[in-house]
Amino acid sequence: MASLDLILDPQLKYWVLLPITFAMVLVGLLRSNVTLLLKPQPKLEGYKESREKQFLKRAACFRSNNGLLTKDEFDIRQQYYLEKLNSTEFYAKIESSSATPANPFTDGATNDALVNMAKGSLMNYIPQTLIMGWVNYFFAGFVIMKLPFPLTDGFKSMLQNGVATPDLDVKYVSAISWYFVNLFGLRPIYSLLMGDSTAADELISQQQQQQALPNIGGPGGPKVDKVFKAEAENIQILSHDSLYDGIVERVLNQYPI
């Protein structure tokens, strides 16, 4: 059976296609700016937490770059890191293993994460719900454009949402489908208008999915004592190979006189 062809009114692109696109772009930019205004300021890290992280970084740097040290320097630093890693001197917080687990909902960080998640969900779903309702109310059943290239029938359900015409050529696009095409394909427009591809990616991800739930049970990473112990074990088994050993022979071999 031959596909049904339609003659489209040229005014459709001015009164349906472009308004849907402009509305989604403007609402997306507005939501991006409102989200930026509502985004909480990062909290300053405490001195002890910063010192703990910096010490672990120093230990990791020593483990990765010890070839730049002489044998005596390596031994001194290895002994120092083993002593400190096996102590609690650089711990930001010492937790008792017998302590009763704290209620996560009494933790301010967890409450802030839940509030931020709720704000993100509202900023995501309310505008999209309003736009979707607007398109459904005014443009339901509209066929607004015809694609200039052929497509297989597998694209029919994606491009002709809301148009119950099985014989219609797959190249025709309905208003509802145009809404979804804009929803998932506006990244280049956002990148051009914002001048920042990272911000555009973040805005697209906000449109397409909910923000992830926070970890209600608290941080899911390993305990600090286990991290320090593992780093101490890695440093304990280090074998030192100095880059200065045989350096004269290597230079002479690379640059013969």
From TrEMBL:
Transmembrane segments: 12-30, 129-149, 169-186
Molecular functions per Gene Ontology: membrane insertase activity; protein-folding chaperone binding
Superkingdom of the source species: Eukaryota
Main location: membrane
Any single Gene Ontology cellular-component annotation: EMC complex
Topological category with respect to the lipid bilayer: Multi-pass membrane protein
InterPro entries: EMC3, EMC3/TMCO1
GO biological process: phospholipid metabolic process; phospholipid transport; protein folding in endoplasmic reticulum; protein insertion into ER membrane by stop-transfer membrane-anchor sequence
Compartment annotation: Membrane
Keywords: Membrane, Transmembrane, Transmembrane helix
Function: The EMC seems to be required for efficient folding of proteins in the endoplasmic reticulum (ER).
Family, as annotated: Belongs to the EMC3 family.
Name the record gives this protein: ER membrane protein complex subunit 3
